[in-house]
Amino acid sequence: MSETPVPVVLAGAHGHGRSHLRNVHALAEEGLVRLVGVCDRVPLPDAEAGDGVEQGDDLGELLKRTGAAATILCTPIHTHLPLARTALDAGSHLLLEKPPTATAAEFTALREAVASSGLACQIGFQSLGSEAVGAVRSLIADGAIGEVRGVGGAGTWVRTSDYYARAEWAGRRTLGGVHVVDGALTNPFAHAVATALALVGAQREVSGEIALELFRAHGIESDDTSCVRVHTPAGTPVSVAVTLCAATSRPPRLVVHGDAGRITLFYTLDEVRLERPGSAPETSVHPRTDLLRNLIGHLRGEAPLLVPPEDTAGFMAVLDAVRRAPDPLPIPAGMQRVTREDDGVHRVVEGVDDLVALSAERVALFSELAAPWAAPGPAAPRPAAAGDPGGG
Question: Torsion over CA of 212, 181, 200 and 358, rounded to 10 degrees?
Fold first, then answer.
Protein backbone atom coordinates (compact mmCIF):
# COMPACT_ATOMS: atom_id res chain seq x y z
CA MET A 1 0.00 0.00 0.00
CA SER A 2 1.23 3.50 -0.79
CA GLU A 3 2.26 6.03 1.83
CA THR A 4 -0.76 8.23 1.08
CA PRO A 5 -3.29 8.54 3.91
CA VAL A 6 -5.56 5.51 4.20
CA PRO A 7 -9.24 6.45 3.70
CA VAL A 8 -11.25 5.35 6.75
CA VAL A 9 -14.94 5.06 7.60
CA LEU A 10 -16.07 5.06 11.23
CA ALA A 11 -19.25 3.09 11.98
CA GLY A 12 -20.61 4.08 15.37
CA ALA A 13 -19.56 7.61 16.24
CA HIS A 14 -21.24 8.16 19.59
CA GLY A 15 -20.42 6.78 23.04
CA HIS A 16 -17.14 4.89 22.83
CA GLY A 17 -17.08 5.71 19.13
CA ARG A 18 -16.02 9.24 20.02
CA SER A 19 -12.67 7.92 21.26
CA HIS A 20 -12.17 6.37 17.82
CA LEU A 21 -13.18 9.66 16.20
CA ARG A 22 -10.57 11.54 18.24
CA ASN A 23 -7.95 8.95 17.38
CA VAL A 24 -8.70 9.09 13.66
CA HIS A 25 -8.38 12.87 13.70
CA ALA A 26 -5.06 12.58 15.57
CA LEU A 27 -3.67 10.05 13.08
CA ALA A 28 -4.94 12.22 10.23
CA GLU A 29 -2.75 15.03 11.56
CA GLU A 30 0.20 12.67 11.05
CA GLY A 31 -0.88 11.89 7.50
CA LEU A 32 -1.59 8.21 8.25
CA VAL A 33 -5.34 8.19 7.64
CA ARG A 34 -8.10 10.33 6.19
CA LEU A 35 -11.64 10.18 7.58
CA VAL A 36 -13.92 9.91 4.57
CA GLY A 37 -17.16 8.69 6.14
CA VAL A 38 -19.15 8.36 9.35
CA CYS A 39 -21.93 5.79 9.59
CA ASP A 40 -24.45 6.35 12.37
CA ARG A 41 -28.19 6.70 12.80
CA VAL A 42 -27.51 10.05 14.47
CA PRO A 43 -25.27 12.22 12.25
CA LEU A 44 -22.36 14.13 13.74
CA PRO A 45 -22.19 17.91 13.42
CA ASP A 46 -20.00 18.80 10.46
CA ALA A 47 -17.56 20.49 12.82
CA GLU A 48 -16.96 17.15 14.57
CA ALA A 49 -16.85 14.95 11.50
CA GLY A 50 -14.70 17.33 9.45
CA ASP A 51 -14.98 19.04 6.13
CA GLY A 52 -16.04 16.86 3.23
CA VAL A 53 -16.76 13.77 5.36
CA GLU A 54 -19.68 11.74 4.00
CA GLN A 55 -22.34 10.65 6.50
CA GLY A 56 -25.17 8.12 6.37
CA ASP A 57 -26.77 5.20 8.17
CA ASP A 58 -26.16 2.54 5.50
CA LEU A 59 -22.61 1.20 5.79
CA GLY A 60 -22.63 -0.58 2.45
CA GLU A 61 -23.74 2.51 0.56
CA LEU A 62 -21.28 4.69 2.45
CA LEU A 63 -18.39 2.38 1.59
CA LYS A 64 -19.40 2.44 -2.06
CA ARG A 65 -19.49 6.23 -2.11
CA THR A 66 -16.20 6.73 -0.27
CA GLY A 67 -14.13 3.72 -1.36
CA ALA A 68 -12.77 3.47 2.19
CA ALA A 69 -9.85 1.07 2.54
CA ALA A 70 -10.44 0.55 6.26
CA THR A 71 -13.53 0.49 8.46
CA ILE A 72 -13.70 0.96 12.21
CA LEU A 73 -16.71 -0.88 13.67
CA CYS A 74 -17.76 0.48 17.05
CA THR A 75 -21.38 -0.61 17.02
CA PRO A 76 -23.56 -2.77 19.32
CA ILE A 77 -22.18 -6.28 19.86
CA HIS A 78 -24.97 -8.06 18.02
CA THR A 79 -24.33 -6.01 14.86
CA HIS A 80 -20.64 -6.87 14.57
CA LEU A 81 -20.88 -9.88 12.28
CA PRO A 82 -23.30 -8.49 9.68
CA LEU A 83 -21.51 -5.15 9.52
CA ALA A 84 -18.11 -6.85 9.35
CA ARG A 85 -19.34 -8.85 6.39
CA THR A 86 -20.60 -5.66 4.75
CA ALA A 87 -17.19 -4.04 5.12
CA LEU A 88 -15.28 -7.09 3.92
CA ASP A 89 -17.60 -7.49 0.92
CA ALA A 90 -16.78 -3.89 0.03
CA GLY A 91 -13.05 -4.65 0.15
CA SER A 92 -12.45 -2.73 3.36
CA HIS A 93 -10.03 -3.86 6.07
CA LEU A 94 -11.38 -3.90 9.64
CA LEU A 95 -10.74 -2.61 13.12
CA LEU A 96 -13.52 -4.40 15.00
CA GLU A 97 -14.32 -3.42 18.57
CA LYS A 98 -14.37 -6.07 21.27
CA PRO A 99 -16.03 -8.43 21.84
CA PRO A 100 -15.68 -9.63 18.24
CA THR A 101 -19.10 -11.30 18.08
CA ALA A 102 -21.92 -12.41 20.38
CA THR A 103 -21.58 -16.18 19.89
CA ALA A 104 -18.98 -18.82 19.07
CA ALA A 105 -20.80 -19.65 15.84
CA GLU A 106 -20.69 -16.02 14.77
CA PHE A 107 -16.98 -15.89 15.64
CA THR A 108 -16.34 -18.87 13.37
CA ALA A 109 -18.30 -17.14 10.60
CA LEU A 110 -16.28 -13.94 11.13
CA ARG A 111 -12.98 -15.78 10.85
CA GLU A 112 -14.14 -17.56 7.72
CA ALA A 113 -15.25 -14.26 6.16
CA VAL A 114 -11.91 -12.62 6.96
CA ALA A 115 -9.93 -15.56 5.59
CA SER A 116 -11.91 -15.75 2.34
CA SER A 117 -11.65 -11.99 1.80
CA GLY A 118 -7.87 -11.87 2.14
CA LEU A 119 -8.30 -8.65 4.11
CA ALA A 120 -6.96 -7.71 7.53
CA CYS A 121 -9.07 -7.71 10.68
CA GLN A 122 -7.82 -6.28 13.96
CA ILE A 123 -9.87 -6.90 17.13
CA GLY A 124 -10.04 -3.89 19.45
CA PHE A 125 -8.50 -5.32 22.61
CA GLN A 126 -6.34 -2.25 23.12
CA SER A 127 -4.60 -3.73 26.18
CA LEU A 128 -3.05 -6.38 23.92
CA GLY A 129 -1.26 -3.58 22.10
CA SER A 130 0.69 -2.80 25.27
CA GLU A 131 4.32 -3.81 25.55
CA ALA A 132 3.54 -4.52 29.21
CA VAL A 133 2.06 -7.86 28.11
CA GLY A 134 5.32 -8.86 26.45
CA ALA A 135 7.25 -7.65 29.50
CA VAL A 136 5.25 -9.98 31.76
CA ARG A 137 5.72 -12.88 29.36
CA SER A 138 9.47 -12.24 29.31
CA LEU A 139 9.68 -12.20 33.10
CA ILE A 140 7.80 -15.51 33.23
CA ALA A 141 10.03 -17.05 30.54
CA ASP A 142 13.16 -15.87 32.36
CA GLY A 143 12.02 -17.60 35.55
CA ALA A 144 11.70 -14.35 37.49
CA ILE A 145 8.93 -15.80 39.67
CA GLY A 146 9.72 -19.48 39.29
CA GLU A 147 6.99 -21.85 38.17
CA VAL A 148 3.66 -20.18 37.48
CA ARG A 149 0.95 -21.52 39.79
CA GLY A 150 -1.97 -19.46 38.48
CA VAL A 151 -3.28 -16.09 37.36
CA GLY A 152 -5.93 -14.11 39.23
CA GLY A 153 -7.69 -11.05 37.85
CA ALA A 154 -9.59 -8.41 39.81
CA GLY A 155 -11.83 -5.64 38.49
CA THR A 156 -13.83 -3.25 40.68
CA TRP A 157 -15.60 -0.40 38.92
CA VAL A 158 -18.58 1.79 39.68
CA ARG A 159 -21.34 1.89 37.08
CA THR A 160 -24.69 3.42 37.97
CA SER A 161 -28.12 2.80 36.49
CA ASP A 162 -27.38 5.41 33.81
CA TYR A 163 -24.76 3.05 32.37
CA TYR A 164 -27.52 0.56 31.58
CA ALA A 165 -29.94 3.22 30.38
CA ARG A 166 -27.55 4.50 27.71
CA ALA A 167 -28.65 2.06 24.99
CA GLU A 168 -31.37 -0.52 24.44
CA TRP A 169 -28.83 -3.36 24.25
CA ALA A 170 -26.92 -2.41 27.43
CA GLY A 171 -27.15 -5.09 30.12
CA ARG A 172 -29.00 -7.46 27.79
CA ARG A 173 -28.35 -11.13 27.14
CA THR A 174 -30.61 -11.04 24.10
CA LEU A 175 -32.51 -8.37 22.20
CA GLY A 176 -35.38 -9.22 19.90
CA GLY A 177 -34.34 -12.86 19.88
CA VAL A 178 -30.73 -12.04 18.94
CA HIS A 179 -27.80 -12.74 21.27
CA VAL A 180 -26.08 -9.69 22.76
CA VAL A 181 -24.22 -11.03 25.85
CA ASP A 182 -23.45 -7.62 27.33
CA GLY A 183 -22.19 -8.78 30.73
CA ALA A 184 -19.41 -7.58 33.03
CA LEU A 185 -16.99 -10.31 31.94
CA THR A 186 -17.79 -10.07 28.25
CA ASN A 187 -17.80 -6.31 27.67
CA PRO A 188 -16.53 -3.79 30.26
CA PHE A 189 -14.03 -6.29 31.69
CA ALA A 190 -13.43 -8.19 28.46
CA HIS A 191 -9.89 -6.81 28.46
CA ALA A 192 -9.25 -8.44 31.84
CA VAL A 193 -10.23 -11.86 30.53
CA ALA A 194 -8.42 -11.57 27.19
CA THR A 195 -5.25 -10.13 28.73
CA ALA A 196 -5.12 -12.68 31.56
CA LEU A 197 -5.21 -15.46 28.97
CA ALA A 198 -2.57 -13.74 26.83
CA LEU A 199 -0.12 -13.51 29.73
CA VAL A 200 0.13 -17.30 29.93
CA GLY A 201 -0.20 -18.16 26.25
CA ALA A 202 -3.86 -19.20 26.32
CA GLN A 203 -5.20 -16.46 24.06
CA ARG A 204 -6.05 -19.02 21.37
CA GLU A 205 -7.28 -21.92 23.50
CA VAL A 206 -8.53 -22.77 26.97
CA SER A 207 -8.85 -26.29 28.31
CA GLY A 208 -11.49 -28.23 30.20
CA GLU A 209 -14.46 -26.88 32.13
CA ILE A 210 -15.19 -23.17 32.26
CA ALA A 211 -16.45 -22.45 35.78
CA LEU A 212 -18.76 -19.43 35.98
CA GLU A 213 -20.64 -17.65 38.72
CA LEU A 214 -22.88 -14.87 37.42
CA PHE A 215 -24.84 -12.40 39.55
CA ARG A 216 -26.67 -9.12 39.15
CA ALA A 217 -27.54 -6.33 41.56
CA HIS A 218 -29.08 -4.03 38.95
CA GLY A 219 -32.44 -4.82 37.39
CA ILE A 220 -30.87 -6.11 34.17
CA GLU A 221 -30.69 -9.41 32.28
CA SER A 222 -26.94 -9.82 32.29
CA ASP A 223 -24.32 -10.06 35.03
CA ASP A 224 -22.81 -7.04 36.76
CA THR A 225 -20.86 -9.07 39.35
CA SER A 226 -19.24 -12.29 38.23
CA CYS A 227 -16.24 -14.58 38.18
CA VAL A 228 -14.80 -17.21 35.88
CA ARG A 229 -12.03 -19.77 36.11
CA VAL A 230 -10.50 -21.58 33.18
CA HIS A 231 -7.30 -23.54 32.60
CA THR A 232 -4.61 -23.13 29.99
CA PRO A 233 -3.81 -26.13 27.79
CA ALA A 234 -0.88 -26.75 30.17
CA GLY A 235 -3.27 -26.84 33.13
CA THR A 236 -2.53 -23.46 34.73
CA PRO A 237 -5.65 -21.99 36.38
CA VAL A 238 -6.72 -18.49 35.33
CA SER A 239 -9.50 -16.69 37.21
CA VAL A 240 -11.07 -13.27 36.77
CA ALA A 241 -13.49 -11.75 39.29
CA VAL A 242 -15.20 -8.45 38.51
CA THR A 243 -17.97 -6.15 39.60
CA LEU A 244 -19.61 -2.97 38.37
CA CYS A 245 -21.13 -2.56 41.84
CA ALA A 246 -18.00 -1.64 43.77
CA ALA A 247 -17.74 0.91 46.54
CA THR A 248 -14.78 2.52 44.75
CA SER A 249 -13.40 2.26 41.21
CA ARG A 250 -9.82 1.01 41.10
CA PRO A 251 -7.48 0.13 38.22
CA PRO A 252 -8.08 -3.52 37.34
CA ARG A 253 -5.14 -5.87 37.87
CA LEU A 254 -3.91 -9.30 36.84
CA VAL A 255 -1.69 -11.18 39.26
CA VAL A 256 0.61 -13.94 38.01
CA HIS A 257 1.43 -16.15 41.00
CA GLY A 258 4.71 -18.05 40.94
CA ASP A 259 6.40 -20.25 43.51
CA ALA A 260 9.19 -17.67 43.82
CA GLY A 261 7.29 -14.39 43.55
CA ARG A 262 4.53 -12.68 41.63
CA ILE A 263 3.93 -10.21 38.83
CA THR A 264 1.05 -7.74 38.82
CA LEU A 265 -0.09 -6.10 35.61
CA PHE A 266 -2.30 -3.02 35.86
CA TYR A 267 -3.40 -3.30 32.25
CA THR A 268 -5.16 0.08 31.97
CA LEU A 269 -1.96 1.77 33.18
CA ASP A 270 0.55 -0.40 31.26
CA GLU A 271 2.27 -0.89 34.62
CA VAL A 272 4.12 -4.05 35.68
CA ARG A 273 5.14 -4.79 39.26
CA LEU A 274 7.54 -7.61 40.11
CA GLU A 275 7.60 -8.80 43.72
CA ARG A 276 9.99 -11.42 45.08
CA PRO A 277 10.79 -12.42 48.66
CA GLY A 278 13.78 -10.53 50.04
CA SER A 279 13.75 -7.90 47.28
CA ALA A 280 12.15 -4.51 46.92
CA PRO A 281 9.27 -4.42 44.40
CA GLU A 282 10.29 -3.41 40.88
CA THR A 283 7.82 -1.32 38.88
CA SER A 284 7.98 -0.45 35.20
CA VAL A 285 5.65 1.35 32.81
CA HIS A 286 5.55 0.36 29.15
CA PRO A 287 4.46 1.98 25.89
CA ARG A 288 1.32 0.97 24.05
CA THR A 289 0.77 0.78 20.31
CA ASP A 290 -2.54 2.14 19.05
CA LEU A 291 -4.38 -0.62 17.21
CA LEU A 292 -5.47 1.55 14.27
CA ARG A 293 -1.89 2.72 13.84
CA ASN A 294 -0.80 -0.92 13.91
CA LEU A 295 -3.45 -1.86 11.33
CA ILE A 296 -2.23 0.86 8.99
CA GLY A 297 1.36 -0.28 9.52
CA HIS A 298 0.28 -3.83 8.70
CA LEU A 299 -1.40 -2.70 5.47
CA ARG A 300 1.87 -1.03 4.50
CA GLY A 301 3.85 -4.19 5.20
CA GLU A 302 5.59 -2.71 8.22
CA ALA A 303 4.24 -4.84 11.07
CA PRO A 304 2.16 -7.91 11.89
CA LEU A 305 -1.29 -7.40 13.34
CA LEU A 306 -1.21 -7.20 17.11
CA VAL A 307 -4.68 -8.67 17.68
CA PRO A 308 -5.87 -10.87 14.79
CA PRO A 309 -9.14 -12.75 15.38
CA GLU A 310 -7.41 -16.05 16.18
CA ASP A 311 -5.73 -14.41 19.16
CA THR A 312 -9.14 -13.85 20.75
CA ALA A 313 -10.39 -17.45 20.51
CA GLY A 314 -9.70 -18.14 24.20
CA PHE A 315 -11.73 -15.10 25.20
CA MET A 316 -14.55 -16.13 22.88
CA ALA A 317 -14.72 -19.53 24.57
CA VAL A 318 -15.40 -17.70 27.82
CA LEU A 319 -17.96 -15.39 26.18
CA ASP A 320 -19.85 -18.31 24.71
CA ALA A 321 -19.87 -20.09 28.07
CA VAL A 322 -21.42 -16.96 29.57
CA ARG A 323 -23.98 -16.90 26.76
CA ARG A 324 -24.99 -20.52 27.41
CA ALA A 325 -24.97 -20.27 31.21
CA PRO A 326 -28.16 -19.95 33.26
CA ASP A 327 -29.38 -16.40 33.81
CA PRO A 328 -27.43 -14.49 36.48
CA LEU A 329 -28.75 -14.84 40.02
CA PRO A 330 -30.11 -11.69 41.66
CA ILE A 331 -28.21 -10.44 44.70
CA PRO A 332 -30.68 -9.87 47.55
CA ALA A 333 -31.58 -6.24 48.20
CA GLY A 334 -30.54 -6.67 51.83
CA MET A 335 -26.96 -7.33 50.66
CA GLN A 336 -26.75 -4.07 48.71
CA ARG A 337 -26.16 -0.47 49.69
CA VAL A 338 -28.11 1.79 47.36
CA THR A 339 -27.58 5.53 46.90
CA ARG A 340 -28.79 7.99 44.31
CA GLU A 341 -26.05 9.95 42.54
CA ASP A 342 -26.13 12.67 39.89
CA ASP A 343 -25.54 9.99 37.26
CA GLY A 344 -28.11 7.49 38.50
CA VAL A 345 -28.56 4.81 41.15
CA HIS A 346 -25.30 3.45 42.59
CA ARG A 347 -25.53 -0.09 43.94
CA VAL A 348 -22.74 -1.49 46.13
CA VAL A 349 -22.75 -5.23 46.79
CA GLU A 350 -21.87 -6.06 50.38
CA GLY A 351 -18.15 -6.88 50.70
CA VAL A 352 -17.63 -7.22 46.96
CA ASP A 353 -14.48 -5.07 46.74
CA ASP A 354 -12.65 -7.30 49.22
CA LEU A 355 -14.02 -10.50 47.69
CA VAL A 356 -12.83 -9.56 44.20
CA ALA A 357 -9.37 -8.80 45.60
CA LEU A 358 -9.31 -12.09 47.52
CA SER A 359 -10.36 -14.00 44.41
CA ALA A 360 -7.30 -12.66 42.56
CA GLU A 361 -5.05 -13.64 45.47
CA ARG A 362 -6.37 -17.20 45.66
CA VAL A 363 -7.47 -17.74 42.02
CA ALA A 364 -10.82 -18.64 43.55
CA LEU A 365 -14.51 -18.38 42.74
CA PHE A 366 -16.90 -16.33 44.88
CA SER A 367 -18.56 -19.44 46.29
CA GLU A 368 -15.18 -20.79 47.39
CA LEU A 369 -14.66 -17.58 49.36
CA ALA A 370 -17.99 -17.96 51.17
CA ALA A 371 -19.54 -14.88 49.60
CA PRO A 372 -22.94 -14.64 51.34
CA TRP A 373 -24.76 -13.97 48.07
CA ALA A 374 -22.93 -16.56 45.94
CA ALA A 375 -24.43 -19.96 45.18
CA PRO A 376 -21.98 -22.87 45.47
CA GLY A 377 -20.55 -24.51 42.41
CA PRO A 378 -19.98 -23.42 38.80
CA ALA A 379 -22.78 -22.41 36.50
CA ALA A 380 -23.51 -25.15 33.99
CA PRO A 381 -24.07 -24.15 30.38
CA ARG A 382 -27.68 -24.14 29.28
CA PRO A 383 -28.54 -26.21 26.20
CA ALA A 384 -28.95 -24.34 22.94
CA ALA A 385 -32.54 -23.75 21.94
CA ALA A 386 -33.89 -24.88 18.63
CA GLY A 387 -32.84 -22.38 16.01
CA ASP A 388 -30.32 -20.81 18.41
CA PRO A 389 -27.82 -19.02 16.13
CA GLY A 390 -25.09 -19.61 18.70
CA GLY A 391 -25.75 -23.31 19.09
CA GLY A 392 -23.09 -25.71 17.97
Answer: -50
Name the domain boundary from 126, 155, 173: 126
Contacts of residue 83, Cβ cutoff 8 Å, sequence gap at least 6: 11, 59, 73, 75
User: Do the domain assignments include residue 384?
Assistant: no
**188: three-class secondary structure by DSSP:** coil
CATH, residue 252 = 3.30.360.10
- Please report whether residue 325 resides in a domain: yes
Radius of gyration of the chain (CA): 21
Q: Are strands 121-123 and 93-96 parallel, antiparallel or unpaired?
A: parallel
User: Can you name the residues that pair with 158 across neighbouring β-strands?
Assistant: 245
> Length of the chain, please?
392
C-alpha span between 245 and 226 (Å, rounded)? 11
- Nearby residues of 24 by Cβ (< 8 Å), 6 or more positions away: 8, 10, 33, 35, 72, 292
- pTM (2 d.p.): 0.94
Peptide bond preceding 326: is omega within 30 degrees of 0, i.e. cis? no
Domain around 257? 131-286+310-369
| Residues 213-269: tens digit of each pLDDT | 999 999 999 999 999 999 999 999 999 999 999 999 999 999 999 999 999 999 999
